[in-house]
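Worked example

This section walks through a single chain of length 66. The input is the sequence exactly as stored; nothing has been trimmed or padded.
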Amino acid sequence: MKSKNTETMREEIERRVSAFRERQQRFNKVRDDYFKQTVARARDDLKRIDMPPPQEGDEPPSRVDV
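Given that input, the structure is written out below as tokens.
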């Protein structure tokens, strides 16, 4: 037989875990949206300056001192 205190504690833990999961899901959505927007802006910038996007395995451009 479980005590009232144990049930209350279990409910509190379940409530906190649920709230944490909801916050994590919101955070992940905001982060994913930001990433998608950033990549889209970068691609638009590359198109605007007529530069092909980097391909997997490409070396980064060497530094050019101006």
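What to look for: The radius of gyration is 24 Å.
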